[in-house]
Write a structure and sequence with these properties.
single chain; 323 residues; alpha+beta; Uridine Diphospho-n-acetylenolpyruvylglucosamine Reductase, domain 2; Uridine Diphospho-n-acetylenolpyruvylglucosamine Reductase, domain 3; Uridine Diphospho-n-acetylenolpyruvylglucosamine Reductase, domain 1; five-stranded antiparallel β-sheet; four-stranded antiparallel β-sheet; 7 helices; 22 strands; 28% strand
Length: 323
């Protein structure tokens, strides 16, 4: 058995009978043939920063080893292709060192490049889909490598085509970035700041994130556990329970609410249930405080969703995925 406890952000005790790494299409074809021979499915994992591991994997676990970078440039753009195994913040550093701009707001996000388009990661007013040119993936049904253009990836708030189409294994991501530093500072918390260099902005973004998230070595966590609810303006106006909450108007005629604010208003910061709880400084961050399991995570999730539904008539939606 392979111990995968250290490969997930919540440090859940987890094991798998078979684990393979892959870098090329040929690697994946061999692994897929092995899985078909064993009549078992595949389960890809990244760095486990947005997934909840089971105690035992019934599937064959696979993990990308593609750490390759390549890029070209023209008068105004930088075109990058980055391997799925590259740590996201290593890409941020690479861009800063090469004077490639656009991703500064997304600095400090844990995880791999391959996981980024799956959840359409976002922070401080920007989403990664804004900068994606294409997503390269291996189709386990067709047994070929495909490049899916961003327009066909069905990107939305923390969602994409890849969440439901698990036969598509992300192998690399193509980005279209800029050769000019034009910082995006419209988001709350950044509006009064000024930066002359991208590296200074990246350092500041990371510092802000570090004040909002616990050190994973002290408090294993997956960052924000629930998505911020996005609902129609009419629904907000009809729901008197939402009157005192902050509301952020979106360009599509919808309103974004703060899931963290709802949980904080219910005095849930620091609460603990079965060695799982909410961080004392941020109610949206779920932490593991001892020996726990995916079942315990689900128990707390259901408990919190029930409370928010009762008090605000809002259905919270989880960000991380149970494997």
């Amino acid at each position: 058995m392979y111990d995968l406890t250290k490969y997930n952000g919540l440090n859940l005790k987890s094991e798998a009978s078979e684990v393979f790494s892959f870098e090329t299409e040929e690697d994946l074809i061999k692994i897929l043939a092995h899985a078909e021979d064993k009549q078992r499915e595949l389960q890809i994992i990244g760095s486990g920063t947005n997934t909840i591991f089971p105690r035992y994997f019934s599937k064959i676990v696979i993990k990308s080893a593609n750490n390759n970078f390549s890029y070209t440039e023209d008068d105004s753009h930088r075109l990058l292709e980055v391997g799925a195994a590259v740590e996201w913040d290593d890409l941020i550093n690479f861009c800063a060192n090469k004077n490639i701009y656009g991703l500064e707001n997304l600095a400090g996000i844990p995880g791999t490049v391959g996981a980024a388009p799956i959840q359409n990661i976002g922070a401080y007013g920007l989403e990664i889909s804004t900068f994606i040119n294409y997503v390269e993936c291996f189709d386990t049904e067709l047994k070929i490598t495909r490049k899916i253009k961003a327009d066909n990836c069905e990107f939305g708030y923390r969602q994409s085509l890849f969440q439901k189409n698990t036969h598509l294994i992300v192998t690399a991501v193509g980005f279209k970035l800029s050769n000019q530093f034009n910082p995006s500072l419209e988001y709350e918390g950044l509006q009064n700041l000024q930066f002359n260099k991208a590296s200074d902005m990246i350092d500041k973004i990371r510092a802000i994130r570090n004040t909002k998230l616990p050190d994973p070595n002290d408090f294993p966590n997956l960052g924000s556990f629930f998505k911020n609810p996005i609902i129609d303006i009419e629904a907000v106006q009809k729901n008197q329970k939402l009157i005192d909450l902050k509301k952020f108007e979106l360009p599509n005629g919808k309103i974004k609410l703060s899931a963290g604010e709802m949980l904080e208003n219910l005095q849930l910061k620091g609460m603990k249930l079965r060695n799982v709880g909410l961080w004392t400084h941020h109610a949206l961050v779920l932490t593991s405080n001892g020996v726990t399991s995916a079942k315990d995570i689900r128990h707390l999730e259901d408990f919190l969703k029930t409370l928010v539904k009762k008090h605000y008539d809002i259905e919270l939606e989880r960000e991380p995925t149970y494997l």
